[in-house]
Write a structure and sequence with these properties.
Helix content is 65%, strand content 0%. The protein has 259 residues and is mainly alpha-helical. The chain has a single domain, classed as Ferritin (Up-down Bundle). Helix 5 runs antiparallel to helix 6, helix 5 crosses helix 7 and helix 5 packs across helix 9. The longest helix has 29 residues.
Length: 259
């Protein structure tokens, strides 16, 4: 179908924003490594992949903006912190810890690949078409990060220990990626967000555990409890407000400017 009913627009916008916000914030965090990554090939790769994330976010903001009659810039830069739908894991400062950034991408890239693959089967044709374009690029991200995980996890004792430590620090918040957005059950009923079997958490956790095992790393994950509230419903980390203030500084000077 090419159109959706009015009652489904806001749930769909919530879902699209959860993906766009994840990518926007993660792309910004990873761009910090430009010129500073530990080896030249990863300096180039991380810069390129960061651009991919921000480009993906732009396309998704444009789609969401069309549904609620606003602009992509207003969605990206003009909301209050509690109106963003990114998972807390993308908000955290890496403090220039390479292992932390690699492991964060590991969790996020695998989830994005599953989420976009699911949306590529959406009954809402415009969304399915956009997702289908992004899936091959996300697959490249997954291949890159899996290779890094295996190299570093199975490398020296220092690289292994730093990767293991990063996984253990991130695992408690990683499951927030799978937190459902408001109204997602309505989208599932209409096949706009097709139901998966096994569940997203099961498929995601199984795949990343396989890679972690191959990298000689231990990984323990638990799903969010039904009563837990995270970034998908506006509860963000203590670092998010300052990060958003930095990201939106130029926009707030002249919100209607065309760049």
């Amino acid at each position: 179908m090419d159109r959706i009913s009015e009652d489904l627009k806001q749930p769909l916008v919530e879902l699209i924003l959860s993906i766009a916000d994840d990518k926007f914030i993660l792309g910004h965090r990873n761009s910090d490594w430009t010129g500073l990554a530990p080896i030249l090939e990863e300096d180039i790769a991380f810069s390129s992949l960061s651009q991919d994330e921000i480009s993906h976010a732009t396309v998704l903001y444009q789609m969401a903006a069309g549904l609620v009659e606003t602009t992509a810039d207003k969605l990206a830069y003009g909301r209050k912190p509690e109106e963003y739908r990114c998972a807390q894991i993308v908000e955290l400062s890496h403090d220039f810890d390479w292992a932390f950034s690699v492991c964060r991408d590991f969790f996020c890239d695998h989830f994005d690949y599953l989420r976009l693959s699911r949306l590529a089967r959406s009954s809402y044709t415009p969304l399915a078409q956009v997702a289908a374009r992004l899936v091959p690029e996300e697959e490249i991200h997954v291949h890159h990060i899996d290779t890094l995980m295996k190299r570093l996890g199975s490398g020296t004792k220092e690289s292994h220990d730093r990767m293991q430590n990063a996984l253990e620090r991130l695992a408690p918040v990683a499951s927030g990626l799978v937190e459902p957005t408001k109204g997602s059950e309505l989208l599932e009923k209409q096949d706009i967000y097709p139901v998966t079997n096994p569940s997203m958490f099961e498929a995601w956790s199984k795949k990343i555990r396989q890679v972690a095992d191959a990298a000689n790393l231990k990984l323990s994950l638990r799903p969010m409890r039904p009563d837990e509230i995270g970034g998908r419903r506006g509860r963000h980390s203590s670092e998010f407000a300052a990060l958003l203030d930095e990201l939106t500084e130029v926009y707030r000077l002249e919100p209607e400017a065309a760049w």
